[in-house]
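Hi F.,

I've been meaning to write this up properly since the lab meeting, where we talked about keeping a consistent format for the predictions we share between groups. The idea is simple: the sequence comes first, exactly as it goes in, then the structure tokens exactly as they come out, then a line or two of notes. No screenshots and no reformatting. I'm using this chain as the first example so we have something concrete to point to.
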Amino acid sequence: MKLNFPIYLDYHATTPCDRRITEVVYHYMTTAFGNSSSIDHTYGDVADTAVKQASKQVANLVGALPREVIFTSGATESINLVIQGLPSSGKKRIAVLPIEHKAVLDTCHALAKKELAEIIFLRVDRQGKLDLEHLEQICAEGISLLCVMAANNEIGTIYPIQSVGAIAQHYNIPFLCDGSQAVGKIPIDFTEWGITYLAISGHKLYAPKGVGALIVKKGHHLEPLIYGGSHQKGMRSGTLNVSGIAGLGEACRLRQLEMAEDEKAIASKRDRLQTLLQESIPDLVINGDLTNRLAGNLHISIPNIPNKAIIARIRHHLAISTGSACSSGVEAPSHVLQAINLPEELIEGSFRIGIGKFTTNEEIVQATNILIKAVWDVRQLS
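Output, unedited:
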């Protein structure tokens, strides 16, 4: 049975796996399927070589050293490993953006609930931009860990990671950067920008789900969450997902080659969609920092129209979301939109649209027509 899938514009939730990457994954699942820790035969040697190659490919994309790469199941595990595994002689003081991904916020709250950590929230404005003066003030007072994402997963705002890293280095504070939405989309230089820990998720850059990485600055160590073999410098035990790791490496290699051209084309499609929607929906509100956002991000609000009423009409024709994939099933307003003090009527009428490298110009036009018709139908009823 052939399924008639809707137009996909939810690239922040996940990306389709690039077919070139699936070929690599398939090879290491079926032909070169060895365990990279099996040192007594060729199958293990080939698998180990693939892991080492992937370490180089990941490191090259983000300006790190191959030996600084730790492979994980994804950014959520990477983030947990840092926040929970950070060595501390007492109660941790952790400074975070209030619009961080739930992987950061929920882990911090879990430690705070056990009285193992104190959470300090950094300041953001209506566009989600970071107050660097306040950040420096907090750092000067002394903290155990600083958490600032590279780009927000809902409104797309890009953060000045180089400036944040410089402040963290000045006060000798470990700096965790969630790079899930940014790696492979914007340039990042782990070493030069003063990042201590960088979380990466494969399925955000056209690699498979269930694989990611944590870049750990040389000289730093984390207490493991998973024991059983002392793999990966003793920070993350377990048999390595060689096929997924090889796929992640190939994805990073391709992004390094194609990122600049792809993101330019994506931004053009995003701008066209934004213009077409604004022409037909005059009261449309664009959220986030319009001068400094991800190329594929378009976060909109339609005043006085419940987003669920729109989703009910378009879900079989157009795939967009009302928030982060990690919490879209939860009946609660977006913590990101609340943190930037978006009015309630705009929160209730908000949508996150994510455009990627496989989005076509024809799909942009079709998506515009679908969304405009849905808005018109809802307004006619009300």
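Notes:
The CA atoms of residues 285 and 301 lie 5 Å apart.
The mean pLDDT is 94.

If this format works for you, I'll send the rest the same way.

G.
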